[in-house]
Amino acid sequence: MHGRIKVKTTLEQQEAKRKEREKKLQLYVSATQAALHKRETGQLDKEALDLTAQILALNPDFASLWNLRREVFLQLQTDRSEEEMQSLCLGELTFLENCLRVSPKSYGTWYHRCWIMKIIPKPDWARELTLCNRFLEIDERNFHCWDYRRIVTQSSSVPLPEELEFTTSLIGKNFSNYSSWHYRSKLLPQIHPDPLRIGRVTEEALLNELELVQNAFFTDPNDQSAWFYHRWLLGRADHPVSIRCVMVSLDEPCVSVTFSHPVEVQEDLILFLNNRPIFVSWRTAGRKEKRSLFWVCDLPKECINDPCCQYNFQVLWKDGEAKKECILYPGRRESWFRDSATENEFFSLDLSEGKSNVLQQELKSCKDLQELEPDNKWCLLTIILLMRALDPLVYEKEALGYFETLKVVDPMRSGYYDDLRSKFQMENAILKMEYAESCLINLSKKGLTRLCHLEHLGQVTHMNLSANQLCALPSNLCMLRRLQVLEVDNNEVVRLEGLWNLPQLEELSLQFNKIQNVSDLQPLSSCPRLSVLHLHGNPLCEKADARTQLESLLPHVNTIHLSLI
Amino acid sequence: MADDLPTEFDVVILGTGLPESIIAAACTRIGQRVLHIDARNYYGGNWASFTFSGLQTWIENCKQELNTELAAACKGQALDNEEIIPFNKRNQTIQNIEVFCYSSTEDGEAVEEAGALNINSALLTTVTSSDGQENSSIDISKNHTSTEQNDSPEGRSDLEEATNSDQRSADSTLETGTIVEVEPSLTQAIQQDSPKTITYSQIVKEGRRFNVDLVSKFLYSRGLLIELLIKSNVSRYTEFKNVTRILTYHNGKIEQVPCSRADVFASKQLSMVEKRILMKFLMHYIDYELHPEDYQDYENSTFLEFLKSKQLTPTLQHFVLYSIAMVPENAKTIEGLKAMQHFLRCLGRYGNTPFLFPMYGLGEIPQCFCRMCAVFGGVYCLHHSLECLVVDGDSKLCKAVIDHRGKRVDCKYVIVEDSYLPEQICANVSYKQISRAVLITDCSILNTESNQEISVLTFPPADKGQTAVYITELCSSTMTCMKNTYLVHLTCSSTKPTAKEDLEPVVQQLFTLSTENDIEANDRTKPKVLWALYFNMRDSSGVPRQSYAGLPPNVYVCSGPDHCFGNDHAVQQAENLFHELYPSEEFCPPAPNPEDIIYDGECAQQEPSESSIPVDSKAEASAENETVVESYEDSEAQKAE
Amino acid sequence: MSMEDYDFLFKIVLIGNAGVGKTCLVRRFTQGLFPPGQGATIGVDFMIKTVEIKGEKIKLQIWDTAGQERFRSITQSYYRSANALILTYDITCEESFRCLPEWLREIEQYANSEVITVLVGNKIDLAERREVSQQRAEEFAGTQNMYYLETSAKESDNVEKLFLDLACRLISEARQNALVNNVDSSLPGEGKSITYLNCCNFN
């Protein structure tokens, strides 16, 4: 074979590689042992740094060795000058950078970098920012780097518009990037804060963002990150915790408070009666939950002994973070004061006319896109959300049509869509009820799979939930303190835990449901006024001794309608 | 020195263009003895790249008439029963050269290229080389009748004045040299100040920053050339840059063609619905073979008609036809779909566009294959002409070649670039022509934040019967032009008598051709052309072998560059020729990784015994020289076994 | 990081007239032998030697001319990415010294402007036949800002020193660059050579 070169055969190469590996492994093992020995014996010196560096360069996820390095640095800190520490730390940063180039997604390495930046005498945050940006250019989804970058930007007080520009450039490179979109959603409310709505952005900024994100989902309608951002843009302001409703009833007697968000109440919710605090103990209407939208307390009888007086009730939460008053006029047995859903636009965006034009445009674009991509679930869902943002009632029927399409194209998530539709249906029904200034709410035949927004139904006396697909009556149904008549016929109700402690409930119709046992009706024993109960068409009716059992379980119920299916 | 040339080779290759260089590498890779010769003193033939002064020399040489008489020495070398076919020594492939200078040439006469060595003659008697192309002094503006001279003393600051007179020698190298290592982003920061007027003398002085390609091509990232570079390990010799954007000329202005997902997202020209239609169309037809039902009705129609039928808006039709498929308007549907598919499949392999450009110009690529050939023993002689082929009277096979010094080299095969073929052989050949223009401009045709864009621009045909003009714009980070300038190449198939007639209308639409400095104040919308070169290059790519009359069967012809944008033709040609010569051998197998090579006596650490070392120093020198020859003998011996 | 293959990688390119002993210098350094009567092995693109300096592994990729210098036909691309150039002449051959300006011109023309160039006068074992005095060569090297060293590949004089000094200088330059723009140097996926050009996706 003269004239032609000899090349190692595959076998020889493998053998050479194997030997190389073996050598490395031996080195690795002995270096590890030596390093750990140093730790045990407390020899926190530069040699320990060299040893761990060898191993960490190969295996940056060896957490205890990073710990060892930190121990060494802490030790060095005690007897080295600031200049010496500075140069040691700079050396460490260079070492870390080399490690990151090899494995840019090692948590330990980023964490250690962060730690070094905290102890380095003269940190250069600008350089760190450049480093982060370079790594994110390579992999914009490196969330370790994103995390570190957050710390860097905090420490280096980068102007926010520059940060926004940074996300723009990353999105320009690849818009399938949750991190960048998410970061935008955090930056924009700080750069262009809406003076009226906390956590939201000015209309002008919003318009720009809508255009940007529209570009993304027209380019690739299957990219979720853009749709998620779009939803954030259309989202409502994050309202602070407020008290939505205070209700006083002398029958029990009690005071109930409904919050906008579930809260945990201890001593920070104070009840004033005619400007004087009174000692009460708050409980949720349910039995277990710690946080709840709804809190109720018993009113000491001696407080309201004169029915001819006017009583001024006030609740104050967290030193005035939220409060609400409610006046009980002379001779009245009950009273409430609440925020109305229609006035406060709880269910739609409070839009200026200009912006609602934009949303109309947005809706039109999405409908265009839907025509091109009839099966795109994100697009369908966005159309529905836009319609709700614009006007829930005007688009009610059309939106329901899109729900049907959505369930067909995405059957996997039809349960989710049913729940969402239920939510929207209930919102619409609440709006209609409020516009009619009624205390009756008719939710029959809405295809409901779950109940929500019950905190808005505090004044309802009569609720019809018949002909839906409800399996259970949820525990927060007990917020309906004034509920007298409840119809839940033709559902799939099995459990009744929500029908607990409804002070005014007189008549309950549960015909054609799936209640199996008399014991399932146990919660009803806590409803003192319940006198009529319709149980026709439930499995329990088949049981021979059903009536006897019911009568002993619910002695106060006068009329129980019970017959075979 | 040429006397050292061995007298026998397996293959003699004349011409160092891309196909010849690939074949040369392929032949030595299978152990053949290759002599690779070029009459020019540079590599690449019509595939070459030149510094600015090198380009001037090339222009001069193209115009020169060469002595076409056969050297008398040849006659004596041929035997009685042998015939002689002389080679053509005049390069007729380049015609209609026209040069225009629009930049200030005020002090152009005195300027020399920077970096000319300042060598102390007291220490050393410098031997003036006659063939060093860069050595020739430059005095272009006066030499060409067509070069417009315009002395405009206005518009130059004192600062420039100072720079002009001071930075004459090596110290300027250091400063300008920093470009090499500076990242584009940094260069950008440095160059933020508005473009200064670049004078002709600056161009001359910075002349070696230029690497002007005679052919303007890019490498498709999944094209045959890239695959071959990777497969053969020739890729280790060069580095590439991504083309950063695809442009088109549409509705009277230059627009960026969105061709990747990120581009479509960022595009400002497309409506939302167009974005969706384009993405959907591209994603669907990237695998067009899977959906025959979607195009078979249009198989006999043009691609444009097909695009119309798919509800693409006029803008989208334009983008897809000219900039993505890059086919002419009359291309058939399948041709368009194939071209579009190739483009799309190339996207994203190395960047946001399908194209790569070699640092220092396309002329590097043939040289890389030559290096590979040399590493495997190929013998290289530039500036060495061959006089004739020696043909055996009986077999009509070529037996040898004779060089300009009358040296006869025996060989089994000859591969020759077609420009060397004599007229008698090419009498019946009809050639196409390529029209070329090279411009040096002062800013980009489409300015963005980055001034380091590498752009491809398709200029659609103005009239029926004309062809689209492909324009490439290179920035200084490609190492093909000096800082603050752009190198623009225009290429099309010729339809008019001269390149200038073909291309000047396009140049005029995109650029300002003016020597007036004050125009800058008014019209900065178009880049200013500082210097322009037009020429026609012969396109022999379509010539079938049969059209060459009287060529010995063991003489093979390589064509010059074709007009296409990619390099597939050259690679395919090289591979086909190689397989004609060596049907059973592998074409360019991977060169071994130097780390896997086992050397004789690798572990032997012993000193060679005193006696075995030739005391004579010349012996050592010749030992080195003889390597190549020895190994040939070895491989020859091996064959005999 | 000593378990990595190397800490630094440098490309060193040899140039100079044919017969001045370039290949012998490379083989002496990389293989510790003086090739008797034979030069470059066919098919060897470059040779590799990893040296250790102050605990750091430096991998030197040493490229030879592949014989292209014989007829003055070295490809430009040979110079392009070299970190260092070793320009060699033969102290017993005036002609090889006289050609140096031509080589320097090629370097100016084609090599990176930050390349480190070392001038080497080889074959000092043949001192009795010296044609170029050390002083003359040193002065010439001085005017061109080159380091100068005289070697004997045969006697192994100064060969190690040549490459090790070069490696040291390359390291310190690399360090300096690293300090200036470490952040800007390329990260994985940004390399320019084709094997390193990374993917970005259409889909």
From TrEMBL, chain A:
Keyword DNA-binding assigned: no
Gene Ontology biological process terms from the UniProt entry: endoplasmic reticulum to Golgi vesicle-mediated transport; prenylation
This protein's GO CC annotations: cytoplasm; Rab-protein geranylgeranyltransferase complex
Transmembrane segments: none
The enzyme's E.C. designation: 2.5.1.60
Keyword Cell membrane: no
Example GO molecular function: Rab geranylgeranyltransferase activity
Rab geranylgeranyltransferase alpha subunit insert-domain domain boundaries: 243-341
Record keywords: Leucine-rich repeat, Phosphoprotein, Prenyltransferase, Repeat, Transferase
PROSITE patterns: LRR (PS51450), PFTA (PS51147)
Swiss-Prot/TrEMBL catalytic activity: geranylgeranyl diphosphate + L-cysteinyl-[protein] = S-geranylgeranyl-L-cysteinyl-[protein] + diphosphate
Annotated Pfam families: LRR_9, PPTA, RabGGT_insert
Highest taxon in the source lineage: Eukaryota
Top-level enzyme category: transferase
Family the UniProt entry places it in: Belongs to the protein prenyltransferase subunit alpha family.
PANTHER family associated with the record: GERANYLGERANYL TRANSFERASE TYPE-2 SUBUNIT ALPHA, PROTEIN FARNESYLTRANSFERASE ALPHA SUBUNIT/RAB GERANYLGERANYL TRANSFERASE ALPHA SUBUNIT
Role played: Catalyzes the transfer of a geranyl-geranyl moiety from geranyl-geranyl pyrophosphate to cysteines occuring in specific C-terminal amino acid sequences. Catalyzes the transfer of a geranylgeranyl moiety from geranylgeranyl diphosphate to both cysteines of Rab proteins with the C-terminal sequence -XXCC, -XCXC and -CCXX, such as RAB1A, RAB3A, RAB5A and RAB7A.
Name recorded for this polypeptide: Geranylgeranyl transferase type-2 subunit alpha
UniProtKB/TrEMBL annotation, chain B:
Top-level taxonomic group: Eukaryota
GO BP terms, alphabetized: intracellular protein transport; small GTPase-mediated signal transduction; vesicle-mediated transport
Compositionally biased residues, Polar residues: 128-152, 162-176
Residues of the signal peptide: none
Annotated ranges, domain RAE1/2: 434-562
Main location: cytoplasm
Keyword Cytoplasm among UniProt keywords: yes
UniProt keyword annotations, A-Z: Cytoplasm, GTPase activation
GO MF terms, alphabetically ordered: GDP-dissociation inhibitor activity; GTPase activator activity
Subcellular location: Cytoplasm, Cytosol
Single GO cellular component term: Rab-protein geranylgeranyltransferase complex
Name listed for the protein in its UniProt record: Rab proteins geranylgeranyltransferase component A
Species this protein is from: Xenopus tropicalis (Western clawed frog)
Gene coding for it: chm
TrEMBL record, chain C:
SUPFAM superfamilies from the UniProt entry: P-loop containing nucleoside triphosphate hydrolases
Enzyme class: hydrolase
BP terms from Gene Ontology: Rab protein signal transduction; vesicle-mediated transport
GO molecular function, one term: metal ion binding
Keyword Lipoprotein: yes
Membrane topology: Lipid-anchor
Documented EC number(s): 3.6.5.2
Protein name: Ras-related protein Rab-30
Organism: Xenopus tropicalis (Western clawed frog)
Gene that specifies this protein: rab30
